[in-house]
Design a protein that fits this description.
Layout: E1 10-14, H1 19-23, H2 26-35, E2 40-45, H3 48-53, E3 61-64, H4 73-82, E4 87-90, H5 95-103, E5 108-112, E6 123-125, H6 136-150, H7 170-183, E7 191-195, H8 208-222, E8 225-228, H9 235-244, E9 250-251, H10 258-265, E10 270-274, H11 277-284, E11 289-292, H12 298-301, E12 308-311, H13 330-333, H14 337-355
Parallel strand pairs: 1-2, 1-4, 2-3, 4-5, 5-6, 7-8, 7-10, 8-9, 10-11, 11-12
Helix pairs in contact: 2-6, 4-5, 7-10, 8-9, 8-14
Length: about 375
């Protein structure tokens, strides 16, 4: 099918269901905006997406649906038909996510021909043979490339050095500063966020007592502010870390919205985390990020940033991608607190050099990460 850009005025993009995956779609969304700069782009996603993408320069608005997809198909189809979209770009692989734009009679529908849904798409794409050996970012970018090919503009899609940055409004930056100030952060000391939880996998969690050991050393040896973060569902693990620490950290787990968390991470000097959504957010904000990898595959799901570093000691069974380890969790226990602390020390030392003018101005890695002023 040949597609004329003039036929595309309104676009709906079916977004992903997890925060980390959503961050990995940024490059594709930015390329979609470059491909069709005059079109109105609506992101259809869960309500949490507002906290991540509100104010983003690559979309125009967000259409929220928190209902189970299979149960809300008729309702969403009616909403999409009423919005008079010309093009549906489908990042997810489910049958329902392709059925909705089909029932909405959207003229052009592009996505992967998975889950027997090829006949629901008039721009169906085969699964790339390289999936599993390249970063997941390229999986979403390839959908926009397929669209560009239908428009005769494939050569214009930028795949080398894709743009993955996330912009944050001044209002959210100010809110992040206020949250840290109210929590008792000392602006003259480094701010290190620890994210010891993970919502969808216990196997991805580095032991709580090890996070605690690193947190104590960050405070006593580097004079850092240590802030525990995460969602309400991760509060129990953060409380376990806090109880195990000799010096109390600042506990903000479950006390911030996603929007506030984005603002907070934009003010951090370093995030130390398991393979979680905040790892991708901090990296997209241009903040130093240290990720402890165990059962998951960093080749496909690491934060896509030169400012993100990984710690990994993989045994023969990794990456297994299991949510619970059936043996002794050796992929994670092989990583010691000293290994994490020494890496963190080096990353904070570099950040301090940058802040003191010995490198780029602090925050220049991403225009959204502004210098903090908590006093």
């Amino acid at each position: 099918m040949t597609l004329s850009p003039e036929a595309i005025n309104r676009i709906v993009v079916r977004g992903t269901n997890w925060v980390g995956d959503a961050v990995m779609t940024i490059a594709a969304l930015r390329e979609l905006r470059r491909l069709l700069p005059d079109s109105h782009i609506t992101l259809a996603s869960r309500s949490w997406s507002r906290g991540l993408f509100d104010g983003a320069d690559f979309i125009d608005d967000i259409l929220i649906s928190d209902e189970r997809e299979l149960l809300s198909i008729p309702k969403q189809a009616r909403q999409w038909r009423k919005a008079d979209f010309d093009l549906a770009v489908i990042f997810t692989n489910s049958f329902a996510s392709a059925l909705i734009p089909f029932l909405a009679r959207i003229p052009y529908r592009v996505g992967y021909a998975t889950e027997s849904r090829g006949r629901l798409l008039n721009l169906p794409l085969p699964l790339p043979e390289w999936r599993g050996s390249r970063h997941e970012l390229y999986y979403y970018l390839n959908i926009v490339r397929g669209l560009a090919q239908a428009m005769g503009k494939a050569s214009g899609i930028r795949e080398s050095n894709p743009e993955v940055s996330l912009t944050v409004s001044g209002e959210r930056i100010s809110r992040g500063q206020e949250l840290l100030r109210m929590a008792g952060v000392n602006a003259n000391r480094p701010i290190v966020a620890l994210c010891p939880g993970s919502i969808n996998s216990r196997a991805k969690r580095w032991p709580a007592e090890r996070f605690a050991a690193v947190g104590d050393r960050l405070i006593t040896e580097l004079d850092a502010n240590v802030v525990l973060i995460g969602s309400e569902g991760e509060l129990e693990i953060s409380q376990a870390v806090s109880r195990a620490m000799k010096v109390p950290p600042l506990l903000l787990t479950g006390r911030t919205s996603l929007s506030e968390l984005v603002g907070l991470l934009g003010q951090s000097d370093l995030l130390i985390t398991n393979d979680t959504g905040p790892a991708h957010i901090a990296a997209a904000l241009g903040r130093k990020t240290l990720v402890i990898f165990g059962p998951t595959n960093p080749l496909t799901t690491r934060p896509f940033s030169e400012l993100a570093e990984l710690l990994r000691e993989p045994p023969d069974c990794a990456p297994c991608m299991l949510r619970d380890c059936p043996i002794d969790h050796r992929c994670m226990t092989a990583i010691t607190p000293d290994m994490v602390f020494q890496k963190a020390r080096a990353m904070i030392a570099y950040e301090n050099e940058v802040a003191n003018g010995q490198g780029l101005a602090r925050g220049s890695a991403n225009r959204a990460a502004q210098p903090r002023s908590l006093r």
